[in-house]
Amino acid sequence: MSMTDLLNAEDIKKAVGAFTADSFDHKKFFQMVGLKKKSADDVKKVFHILDKDKSGFIEEDELGFILKGFSPDARDLSAKETKMLMAAGDKDGDGKIGVDGGLVYHKMILSI
């Protein structure tokens, strides 16, 4: 399954191109790609696409490449952007974002 099976390719392209270096706004990005409108099940599928090592978590090193999960030619997040996104999603402070049946990640998307 690819990201474009779940999200509109044109929305992804616009969202990826909307943020220059050190300007990434995860709230706007998730809204622009349409994640806020998706069901918990669809958000879980997106999570698994972004979880490159299939550990069940998105760790900080994976998070820096999150835009590439949406579009292979996208830029990497800066260290500052990565840390800000991790802080938004890492609710228990363990340095990774987990998914519990898709609900934790879905709540994160809806709350940001």
TrEMBL record:
<feature type="binding site">
    <location>
        <position position="51"/>
    </location>
    <ligand>
        <name>Ca(2+)</name>
    </ligand>
</feature>
<dbReference type="InterPro" id="IPR008080">
    <property type="entry name" value="Parvalbumin"/>
</dbReference>
<dbReference type="InterPro" id="IPR011992">
    <property type="entry name" value="EF-hand-dom_pair"/>
</dbReference>
<feature type="domain" description="EF-hand">
    <location>
        <begin position="38"/>
        <end position="73"/>
    </location>
</feature>
<comment type="function">
    <text>In muscle, parvalbumin is thought to be involved in relaxation after contraction. It binds two calcium ions.</text>
</comment>
<dbReference type="InterPro" id="IPR002048">
    <property type="entry name" value="EF_hand_dom"/>
</dbReference>
<dbReference type="InterPro" id="IPR018247">
    <property type="entry name" value="EF_Hand_1_Ca_BS"/>
</dbReference>
<feature type="binding site">
    <location>
        <position position="53"/>
    </location>
    <ligand>
        <name>Ca(2+)</name>
    </ligand>
</feature>
<feature type="binding site">
    <location>
        <position position="90"/>
    </location>
    <ligand>
        <name>Ca(2+)</name>
    </ligand>
</feature>
<feature type="binding site">
    <location>
        <position position="96"/>
    </location>
    <ligand>
        <name>Ca(2+)</name>
    </ligand>
</feature>
<keyword id="KW-0106">Calcium</keyword>
<keyword id="KW-0479">Metal-binding</keyword>
<keyword id="KW-0677">Repeat</keyword>
<feature type="binding site">
    <location>
        <position position="55"/>
    </location>
    <ligand>
        <name>Ca(2+)</name>
    </ligand>
</feature>
<comment type="similarity">
    <text>Belongs to the parvalbumin family.</text>
</comment>
<protein>
    <recommendedName>
        <fullName>Parvalbumin</fullName>
    </recommendedName>
</protein>
<feature type="binding site">
    <location>
        <position position="57"/>
    </location>
    <ligand>
        <name>Ca(2+)</name>
    </ligand>
</feature>
<dbReference type="GO" id="GO:0005737">
    <property type="term" value="C:cytoplasm"/>
</dbReference>
<feature type="binding site">
    <location>
        <position position="62"/>
    </location>
    <ligand>
        <name>Ca(2+)</name>
    </ligand>
</feature>
<dbReference type="GO" id="GO:0005509">
    <property type="term" value="F:calcium ion binding"/>
</dbReference>
<feature type="binding site">
    <location>
        <position position="92"/>
    </location>
    <ligand>
        <name>Ca(2+)</name>
    </ligand>
</feature>
<dbReference type="Pfam" id="PF13499">
    <property type="entry name" value="EF-hand_7"/>
</dbReference>
<feature type="binding site">
    <location>
        <position position="94"/>
    </location>
    <ligand>
        <name>Ca(2+)</name>
    </ligand>
</feature>
